[in-house]
Write a structure and sequence with these properties.
GO molecular function: cadherin binding; RNA binding
Helix content: 10-25%
Protein name: UBFD1 protein
Shape: rod-shaped
Oligomer: single chain
CATH class of the largest domain: Mainly Beta
CATH superfamily of the largest domain: Pleckstrin-homology domain (PH domain)/Phosphotyrosine-binding domain (PTB)
CATH architecture of the largest domain: Roll
Strand order of the largest sheet: 9-8-7-6-12-11-10
Pfam family, one: PH_UBFD1_C
Domain Ubiquitin-like: 21-88
CATH topology of the largest domain: PH-domain like
């Protein structure tokens, strides 16, 4: 390989015969003034950036007139004094911080739920539950999980205290919510979530809500669901139902 040609220092400092160039490294709204050897490679500059920012070289995207090649020297790619080097990338801690809010949010929601009084004591639900258990409620089996029955689940109340029945049309992937007035035919995929809670004093029955829109205001409440079917209902509606 030919020896590097002598060059004028561009006004940079000489350090033991090595020509330095002044750079502005910009990362994450931070600016660093750096003097670096012109005959160092892009890979070596990444190591320098690591020492400044804590950002591992493998997680750096370094830009100077395009992506900085790791195997070429700064001289070869014509870096001059005052050049701006843009760095994109996140530290391990940043990545973890981005990944954890979801878990943290879920924990906060659970904590909030724990602080709240049980659903069945809330006023909107009390007015239905205080009517007592419907005369034609389906029998419950405590401590057992059963598959959905082949007949509709009936003998339950909705939040206005009217009778409601649930029919699971698996071949059409629909849940039919039927009242005396009408039957709503809902695609399973349109139901965002299913929540349930045992009814105090009647733990073998649950109150259950189907989330039909983006917020809690869209919950369709059903009361006196036999406990043995609760898991099967959730699995079926949320897409975990299997054909065997």
């Amino acid at each position: 390989r030919e020896p590097p040609q002598a060059s004028v220092s561009n006004g940079g400092d000489e350090d033991g015969g090595r020509e330095l160039v002044e750079l502005k490294v910009i990362w994450n709204k931070n600016k660093y003034d750096v003097k670096f050897c012109l005959d160092s490679t892009g890979a070596e500059l990444k190591q320098k950036i690591h020492s400044l920012t804590g950002l591992p070289p493998a997680m750096q995207k370094v830009m100077f007139k395009g992506l900085l090649p790791e195997d070429k020297t700064l001289r070869e790619i014509k870096v001059t004094n005052g050049a701006k080097i843009m760095v994109v990338g996140s530290t391990i801690n940043d990545v973890l911080a981005v990944n954890t809010p979801k878990e943290a949010a879920q924990q906060e929601v659970k904590a909030e739920e724990n602080k709240k009084e049980p659903l069945c004591r809330q006023k909107q639900h009390r007015k239905v539950l205080d009517k007592g258990k419907p005369d034609d409620v389906m029998p419950s089996v405590k401590g057992v999980q059963e598959r959905l029955p082949t007949v509709p689940l009936s003998g339950m109340y909705n939040k206005s205290g009217g009778k409601v029945r649930l029919t699971f049309k698996l071949e059409q992937d629909q849940l039919w919510i039927g009242t005396k007035e009408r039957t709503e035919k809902l695609p399973m995929g349109s139901i965002k979530n299913v929540v349930s809670e045992p009814i105090e004093g009647h733990e073998d029955y649950h109150m259950m809500a189907f989330q039909l829109g983006p917020t809690e205001a869209s919950y369709y409440w059903v009361y006196w669901v036999p406990t043995q079917y609760v898991d099967a209902i959730k699995d079926t509606v949320l897409g975990k139902w299997q054909y065997f």
